[in-house]
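Input (Cytidine deaminase):
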Amino acid sequence: METIDWENLKDVACEVMQHAYAPYSGYPVGAAAIVDDGRIVSGCNVENAAYGVGLCAECGMVSELTKGGGGRLVAFVAVNGNREVIVPCGRCRQLLFEHGGKALKVLMPHGVMTMDEVLPYGFGPTELNEVESAVKVDMPYALQENVQ
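Output:
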């Protein structure tokens, strides 16, 4: 992959963050990622009065990825309402791992890390397939070994 334009990706995340629906926390979040085919996908958080059903920005971003035909995320950033780079929550780390794999590059407040560093020992289809009684699942494209 060519050099990642982190500033442009952050600008996309900042733009979509302005559309966040965050009346309960007052904490808008925007997320953006580059897909392996060159597309940029993005999403913002959407809160709900029933707090547990709110959606993180990464959820909206992955929905856009899937709606657009899927693919593998190769670079990701999330920002807050101050346009600062933030760390994805635990649930979103798992979501990013599922759609970007270990090699996904994540811009963190202190620099770029791989998803394997952000979520060491990530849980995925490989772990499901190790349990004999579990339903066997095909390996998603983003997690296939030969995909870089």
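Helices lie at 6-17, 57-67, 90-100, 115-118, 125-129.
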